[in-house]
Amino acid sequence: MRVSILASGSSGNITLLETERTRLLIDAGLGKRETLARLAAVKKTVDHLDGILITHEHADHCNGLPQMLGLWKAPLYVTEPTMDVMQRILPETLGKRLRGVETIHAGQRFTIGDIDVHAFAIPHDAADPIGFTFRTNGTKFAMVTDLGYMTELVKVHLRNADCLLLESNHDLDMLKVGPYPWVVKQRILSRTGHLSNHAVSEYLADPDGFDGKARYLVLAHLSQENNNPDLVCLSAEEALRRRPAESAFCGELLGASRDCPLRPLELSRFLEYVRFDSRMLAIRKTLRISTHSLLHSKFLGRGAEAMSSRVSGSDPLRMPAPKGLLLRRLRPQATLYPPKSPR
Fold first, then answer.
1. pLDDT tens digits, 216-270
2. Which of 197, 198, 253, 274 is the most exposed place for a label (fewest CB within 10 A)?
3. CB contact set of 227 (below 8 Å; sequence gap of 6+)
4. Number of other CB atoms surrounding residue 216 within 10 Å
């Protein structure tokens, strides 16, 4: 599975999800020209889509939908309340370009091509907002933005994700002194508003909430006026350092931008095995286990499982790296927030 986050923010949200057989577009917040430019920037040529999925009807998630339908003539997957609102707020060309609507609802599981999709409810001030998880070939991608707080249901759906796209919308202090009218500030801070950096950090630090298993943790939907990529990175790093050593996060911390796409993220079980092997080497050094006793044990046999139970108590493919390794891998990620592209 390949995940290409083309844009994330109040000016537009759009993500391309691909396997060898299936292509999906999640949200359509950009116009045709900008969408094609973002695809070209990540060297993607899309000749067809198997589906377009809409999370909710706010303009930054659906404004470009009529153009996307005209460009790719793909079926639309959307909840009925969201569709009702979009038909009122979007141009009439929406109805003319529809090639089929698949009505979905929160809690529903369905399949598009070789991708299993699960929609789940999120707390946001929209008609019927939903988040999604996507599974194929043993890998999982979870995405949730535009939510006021982390419900227990949302936390359950985000667990065991190989790639997690999560909102980190605003810094509380910047929002309070920022230019927005007080009524807008109250909306953002409400339980149907947006997640703050602080709320995200509390979630990331809690091993009972965030399991730390993601290969890629992508923080997204940053406010242009009330947040800063450096603040987001520092807040997340501090939270991840607070995690217990046995549930340390060993993936990559990345940031999605509204101005340019993030590099495509490749999810595959082969990469998972490679990551397991590198973790075994790090754990061997930390626990002073001989190279022979570690590397010559059966890869998924009792030797590896025993090691896993000593270190993490769970899946041998998810063994945490030592705390020092975690810090070395996190610090460079501050530079991974893409610079603004010239207009």
1. 999 999 999 999 999 999 999 999 999 999 999 999 999 999 999 999 999 986 5
2. 274
3. 168, 169, 170, 171, 174, 197
4. 20
As a whole number, mean pLDDT of residues 155-177 equals 98
| Ranges of each domain in the chain | 1-103, 275-329
Burial category of 1 from C-beta neighbours within 10 Å (exposed 0-12, middle 13-18, buried 19 and up): buried
203: tokens are 């979630």
Supply the pLDDT for residue 269.
66
- C-alpha distance from residue 315 to each of 247, 284, 338 (Å): 11, 17, 33
Closest Cα to residue 278, out of 319, 313, 314?
319
11 — phi, psi (to 5°)? -95, -5
Give yes or no for residue 283 having a pLDDT over 70. Answer: no
- CA 175 → CA 135, 185, 186, 197, 223, distances in Å? 36, 7, 10, 11, 9
* Contacts with 279 (C-beta within 8 Å, 6 or more apart), sequence order: 250, 319, 320, 321
Q: Helix (H, G, I), strand (E, B), or coil: what is residue 225?
A: coil
Asked if pLDDT for residue 326 goes beyond 70, the answer is no
- How far apart CA 318 and CA 260 sit, in angstroms, is 31
pLDDT band at 287 (very low <50, low <70, confident <90, very high): very low
Q: Does domain 1-103 have CATH number 3.60.15.10?
A: yes
Question: Which run of H or E residues covers position 82?
Answer: helix 80-89
C-alpha span between 212 and 305 (Å, rounded): 19
Q: How far apart are the first and last CA of the chain?
A: 31
